[in-house]
């Protein structure tokens, strides 16, 4: 279920807005290999923040996104204020999936009660959340997360969905799209994950919505075979166009291990391996060898607004 939820939101995309490629629309060369390396889950632990900050500062990770419900948000806010050019978006949260590290809503419980369990925490998975969630309460909660970040001095560059829960139903997906439009921010949706999805998702997308070409992320089978192998293969085969590669960077240790609670999928060892690879000279060399250009969500948004 966790793997399904983490991948679900990657499966949504809209129709190509024109016969012209997105890269060309945005003023890039049609044959350029463009890549956002995107680190999820800032705020969840100090170890996640430190690993992600170091990876961002090193220049090989070009973007990251923030969970406003989580305990280490103030540290992220200090980093964002000190590094205003950092490409930081909002990782909109509707679940609290870890056994021993839990969080509730940002909005007051009386305003979003359909999202909370009997103990006041967000539910552990997308399916459980979707069974009870009221779309307008979802809208209230994700807007509260954005506003909390902004109040702390964070100016988000984009929106994406933690564990994919904003794609759990077409109604929630519309809330996701509408929120991006309201704030003038791109949201993470991609062309390559369209196959097999209900047409209602595609129909919700309009010409206002920026849709990237490809979205890639490692799953549990890739971890078992070796994350470095997966990433090297993805880079070697990266197509031309606008690509996003989702990763999870954190420094292993007692805190990360405590969060994972023995769970392997997206756990402490996985996050350290992501940090190791994307902080390495090998990764920098692969970018050069494959002719891959790192970009950010901020750059995409600025170019999109110019072309609109």
Automatic annotation (TrEMBL):
Family annotation (InterPro entries): Glyco_hydro/deAcase_b/a-brl, YdjC-like
Signal peptide: 1-18
Biological processes per GO annotation: carbohydrate metabolic process
GO MF entries: deacetylase activity; hydrolase activity; metal ion binding
Superkingdom to which the source organism belongs: Bacteria
Keyword terms: Carbohydrate metabolism, Hydrolase, Magnesium, Metal-binding, Signal
Cofactor section: Mg(2+)
Transmembrane segments: none
Metal-binding listed as a keyword: yes
Name of the protein in its database record: ChbG/HpnK family deacetylase
């Amino acid at each position: 279920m966790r793997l399904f939820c983490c991948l679900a939101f990657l499966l949504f995309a809209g129709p190509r807005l024109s016969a012209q490629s997105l890269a060309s629309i945005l003023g890039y060369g049609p044959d350029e290999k463009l890549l956002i390396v995107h680190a999820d889950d800032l705020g969840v632990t100090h170890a996640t923040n430190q690993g992600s900050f170091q990876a961002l500062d090193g220049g090989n990770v070009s973007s990251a996104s923030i969970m406003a419900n989580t305990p280490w948000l103030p540290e992220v806010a200090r980093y964002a204020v000190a590094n205003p050019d950092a490409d930081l978006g909002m990782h909109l949260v509707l679940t609290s999936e870890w056994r021993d590290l839990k969080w509730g809503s940002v909005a007051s419980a009386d305003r979003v009660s359909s999202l909370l369990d009997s103990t006041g925490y967000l539910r552990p998975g997308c399916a459980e959340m979707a069974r009870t969630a009221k779309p307008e309460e979802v809208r209230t909660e994700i807007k509260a997360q954005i506003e909390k970040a902004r109040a702390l001095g964070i100016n988000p560059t984009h929106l994406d969905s933690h564990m994919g829960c904003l794609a759990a139903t077409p109604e929630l997906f519309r809330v996701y799209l509408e929120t991006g439009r309201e704030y003038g921010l791109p949201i993470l949706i991609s062309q390559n994950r369209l196959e097999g999805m209900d047409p209602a998702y595609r129909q919700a997308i309009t010409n206002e919505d920026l849709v990237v070409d490809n979205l890639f992320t490692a799953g549990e089978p890739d971890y078992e075979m070796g994350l470095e192998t997966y990433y090297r293969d993805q880079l070697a085969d990266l197509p031309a166009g606008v690509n996003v590669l989702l990763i999870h960077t954190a420094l292993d240790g007692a805190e990360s291990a405590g969060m994972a609670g023995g769970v392997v999928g997206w756990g402490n060892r996985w996050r350290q391996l992501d940090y190791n690879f994307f902080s390495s000279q090998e990764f920098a060399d692969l970018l050069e060898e494959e002719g891959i250009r790192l970009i950010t969500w901020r750059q995409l948004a600025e170019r999109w607004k110019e072309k609109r």
